[in-house]
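Box 4.2: Ligand-aware structure prediction
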Amino acid sequence: MAVTILAIESSCDDTSVAVLKDDCVLSNLIANQEIHMSYGGVVPELASRAHQANIVPVTHQAVMRAGIKNEDIDAVAFTRGPGLLGSLLVGTSFAKGFALALGIPLIEVNHLQAHVLAHFILEKDKEKRIPAFPFLCLLVSGGHTRIIVMKSHLEMEVIGNTIDDAAGEAFDKCGKVMGFTYPAGPIIDKLAKEGNRNAFKFAKPSVKGLDFSFSGLKTSFLYFLRDRLKEDPDFIEKNKADLCASLQHVIVSILISKLVKASAFSGIKEIGIAGGVSANSGLREEIKLEAEKRNWNLFIPEFRYTTDNAAMIGITAYYKYLKGEFCGHEITPLARY
Ligand code: KG4
Ligand code: ZN
């Protein structure tokens, strides 16, 4: 018998609801919150209010587009964490109410595990290669930068982590310094395409082992611009594309050099990227070249499954459903998970 799961993601600034039938996505809706753009980052209070306004209509649409009725749903899944507590609370409470009303089980999902499992989301009538285990995945999002070894669908080991900022934060914070709206990652990506990546040199941090650090880069970028702006107040405007290309190049090289190290260390050649920053075209291109050179079996997610989405919550919940991993209604969200 097929399993139908309703999945809810509300960890940050996007309200997303998906319906999956087994590992196949039937609908995946995302309501973006544009309200944060001018603030240079997500404002938690505004995010939870927007989730409250969005969650009922987005769920309604997701169920309709999936072509099912509420009674067809076998379980409700939600992001338990990590994320903004107020935002998580909206999704968690809504999921509980929905499960209670239909008398069906509740499944809690770790948002980071879900980003990695996005590689296993299937779509109707579409062929897709999926990774074999062990699978080595670079998870790069707005809040996290990790290298993960996946031993099975639900067994993961973190072998590398950032000691300060995440790669997404490096994009967003440096973008803010250049006057871009939030999130700056996609804007930098777009401008970088017209720039020279060797125009400016920014120092790479030296961090031991498989860990990352991005806060030094952010500071050196800030000081570099401060000095140049003293000489020419229009420096950013005149060099925007080159600045973006150079910044993106250094971030991508830091990420790839650690992934190369992790592959050598673990002996794993089944390799993937996940999370919002995995949408970056520079990273996608560079990693393809690296994979060819090193004979990796490479997995790059579809754009729609890189940034936050509920389909990835649904696929994780599907594997938990198969193992009977349900949770009780006393469960609370976790800002750190
Ligand atoms: O995974 P995600 O949607 O949310 C978190 O779980 O954090 O990642 C959001 C991050 C933001 O920092 C955003 O700037 C970055 O992903 N991002 C990008 C691109 N698209 C999204 N960074 C660089 N290039 C992109 N194309
Ligand atoms: Zn995320």
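In the box above, the bound molecule is zinc ion. The chain has a mean pLDDT of 97.
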